[in-house]
Amino acid sequence: MNPRLRVDLARLIASQISVHACMTGFRMAAPLMALREGHSAWSVGILLALFALAPVFLALPAGRFADRHGLQRPVRLAVTVASVGALAAVVWPTFWVLCLSATTCGAASGMAMIALQRHVGRLAHDATELRQVFSWMAVGPSISNFLGPVLAGFVIDHAGFRWAYLVLALLPWLAWWWVRRTQELPREPAPEGGRRASSWDLLRQPDFRRLMALNWMLSSCWDVHTFLVPVLGHERGLSATAIGAILGGFALAATAIRVLMPWLASRLRESAVIATAMFATASLFAIYPFAHAAGAMATLSVLLGFALGSVQPMIMSMLHQMTPPHRHGEALGLRSMAINGSSVAMPLLFGSVGAAVGVAYVFWAVGSLVGVASPMAWRLRPVATPPERSPR
């Protein structure tokens, strides 16, 4: 990786962390304020769903917008939307304004992530660099998932909710500060004389369709683990500290594998990594319900973190290789729509099924689906390898 690419990548990761930390901090602070003011758990669930619901509907328009306007204009718009949404909670910290703020912060984070991911993919010169840059980019959300809630909690304890919302409203402007000096790349022209293609035309490519299906399955596995481990831990009589440590081990393992992957990028093949992760996930889900001690659950959680943490950089690399350059934003929008839709719908489904037949059967059902689908990953092949680009 050349020095110029390292500098650009560092700026983009810092920008990603800044805008995403605003959302993650607000996602912790707003429900906590709602609970302290006496709102029901159902109301808090609606509030949390709004963070993921907005990107479901805005992902495709955001992807097209990024294809047309590049990096800076979408990020500037996202920064403004996130900041205004958070500032509204400073002025009017009512439940309905918190819902509005949740919607704007979720939408802004999704828009910025699509624009940043699209730009990073275009910076890479070949398939190896694609794996490297997306491995580093995948570390960003891990940092912001830690930074946002910790920062918000610290300010809440020492100054109150309004000051926390104010601090979170300032974070997105750091994202713009990092991006404003980044050089825009030339717009990729669409083929001349062709009809305006629908975003759904991308799904007519068999490999792209397989990639989206596999991405959705693995994202659902992440949701299964995050949602059901507290339920399983409660059934086992584990303390809140033990359950938090189990989930924390998963997050640390996912981050560690992503930090390691850039140095292994030249030896990795996307389809092999995805297929191996799916097989490992299916095996771990089969064992999970039999783990009763906190240590056993923590071990399985760490191994699952290694498996699922390795997937996102490979999927992002493959997506950029098999999508026409002028439609990278649209492809990222489709992926974002599927992931956020899963985050909204799957916990409701898992909760209903788990209550009816038991948590163990949810683990086994999802694991079986992923295991049966794992051979699909071996058949993934890039449709169009990104053109070699001269160093900038």
Brief synopsis:
The chain is an all-alpha fold.
Secondary structure elements and pairings:
Layout: H1 3-36, H2 41-69, H3 72-91, H4 95-123, H5 127-159, H6 161-179, H7 206-235, H8 240-264, H9 270-287, H10 294-309, H11 311-322, H12 328-357, H13 359-378
Helix pairs in contact: 1-2, 1-3, 1-4, 1-5, 1-6, 2-4, 2-12, 3-4, 3-6, 4-5, 4-12, 5-6, 5-8, 5-11, 7-8, 7-11, 7-12, 7-13, 8-10, 9-10, 9-11, 9-13, 12-13
Descriptive keywords:
MFS; about 400 residues; 13 helices; 2 domains; Major facilitator superfamily protein; mainly alpha; Growth Hormone, Chain: A
What is the rounded distance between the termini? 12 Å
Globally, the shape reads globular
CATH architectural arrangement of the largest domain: Up-down Bundle
Largest sheet: none
**How many individual β-strands?**
0
What is the CATH topology of the largest domain? Answer: Growth Hormone, Chain: A
CATH superfamily of the largest domain: MFS general substrate transporter like domains
Number of self-contained structural domains:
2
Helix-strand pattern: HHHHHHHHHHHHH
Structure report:
This is Major facilitator superfamily protein. It is found in: Membrane. It is a single chain. This protein has 392 residues and is mainly α. It folds into two domains: 1-180, Growth Hormone, Chain: A, CATH 1.20.1250; 202-384, MFS general substrate transporter like domains (Growth Hormone, Chain: A). Helix content is 80%, strand content 0%. It contains 13 helices and no strands. Helix 7 (206-235) runs antiparallel to helix 8, helix 7 (206-235) packs antiparallel against helix 11 and helix 7 (206-235) runs parallel beside helix 12. The longest helix is centred in the first third of the chain and has 34 residues, at 3-36. The radius of gyration is 21 Å and the shape is globular. The termini are close together.
